[in-house]
Design a protein that fits this description.
Blueprint (H helix, E strand, L loop, with lengths): L3 H34 L3 H33 L3 E6 H18 L4 E9 L2 E8 L3 E4 L4 E3 L1 H13 L6 E5 L12 H12 L5 E5 L4 E5 L5 E6 L3 E3 L4 E4 L6
Parallel strand pairs: 1-3, 1-9, 6-7
Antiparallel strand pairs: 2-3, 2-6, 4-5, 7-8, 8-11, 10-11
Helix pairs in contact: 1-2
The structure holds zinc ion (ZN).
Zinc ion binds next to loops.
Length: 236
């Protein structure tokens, strides 16, 4: 995705090009009129060829403008996550959850390159509350992780947790999940949530933030825009 500055620069260049071609077309029409009036056949043919070339350039430029406009309309934050990373996160959460039959949670960071966020690293905060239907993070532990990320120029880009039941519906965020997500969005974090079910479904969600998520690689099936299924859930 082009940055806003680059988009603006490109639009200005296209518009300048368009203006140049439009002026050239007017000149050519004017010249063609005179050539026709004076019955200069060869000159007429030459001008018509030039006019056709200009038309081609103009349609190319308007295609560029249309493409630019459609890219600008989609200003949702785009996230990419690898299928292997997603499987590893699922296994990690499941392993933690199975220790005591309770929910587990990880923080996720990664690189932000040209506006694209690539989720590829987890940190495990200590949990202050943990049950079969709820999990919350210890404040001090959370602060330490966020400071560490900040020290290395990284940010919190997602938080993943699991629900201790199966099926697509098990991935629906609870009211508390939405409340946590809302706090992060209010705090200015570019972070989305994801809920894993016991059998490998994973749903990404936010409260207000509009975003897109794409899974890179094989072994994870897209069910809906924000819902995926890890096909092989046996731990390696
Ligand atoms: Zn939850």
């Amino acid at each position: 995705m082009l940055s806003h500055g680059k988009q603006e620069e490109m639009r200005q260049k296209i518009q300048t090009g368009n203006q140049f071609i439009e002026n050239r077309l007017n000149d050519l029409f004017e010249n063609l009129k005179h050539a026709c009036e004076n019955l200069e056949k060869e000159k007429c043919n030459q001008l018509v060829d030039e006019l056709l070339n200009c038309e081609e350039v103009m349609s190319g430029l308007s295609f560029c403008l249309d493409t630019l406009a459609s890219e600008e309309k989609d200003n949702r934050q785009k996230y990419v996550v690898g299928s292997l990373f997603l499987r590893d996160c699922f296994n990690l959460l499941l392993k933690e959850a199975r220790k005591n039959d309770k929910e587990s949670l990880v923080y996720v960071t990664g690189m932000k390159v040209s506006g694209l966020i690539i989720l590829d690293r987890v940190s495990m905060p200590q949990l202050s509350e943990q049950s079969g239907v709820y999990v919350s993070v210890d404040h001090e532990s959370s602060k330490a992780i966020l400071c560490d990320l900040d020290k290395y120029g990284h940010g919190l880009h997602a938080w993943f947790h699991n629900h201790t039941s199966k099926g697509e519906s098990a991935t629906l965020p609870s009211n508390k999940d939405f409340a946590t997500q809302e706090r992060l969005e209010r705090g200015g974090y570019d972070a989305v949530g994801a809920v894993f079910s016991e059998d490998g479904f994973v749903r990404f969600f936010s409260k207000q933030t509009e975003f897109k998520i794409e899974v890179f690689g094989k072994g994870v099936k897209k069910i809906e825009d924000f819902l995926f299924k890890i096909e092989e859930t046996t731990e390696l």
